[in-house]
Amino acid sequence: MTAFTALDRLFDPDRQCFTEDGARILADLRSDEETQARMEELASKSNEGTLNAEEAREYESWVRAGTLISILQAKARLYLKKTAAA
């Protein structure tokens, strides 16, 4: 089992991990301009094959964080959809 699989199970919307306000905040979460610019810079360098070792570690951490945030946002949206239907 990967860490992401475990988190996927942990934040199952049926487990009531979210509040409506918390789910809305999480679903709408976006990075600030500076962070977005850095991620785009690293992504571009990665595509070009020009990342140094430190940048590669930084980029990998952003990719992992982005995956985690995406999973949590999907769970939050599902929670909001279910509560709206109830």
TrEMBL record:
On the tree of life, the source organism's domain of life is Bacteria
Q: What is this protein called?
A: Uncharacterized protein
Name its species. Answer: Prosthecobacter debontii
Q: What is the lineage of its organism?
A: Bacteria, Pseudomonadati, Verrucomicrobiota, Verrucomicrobiia, Verrucomicrobiales
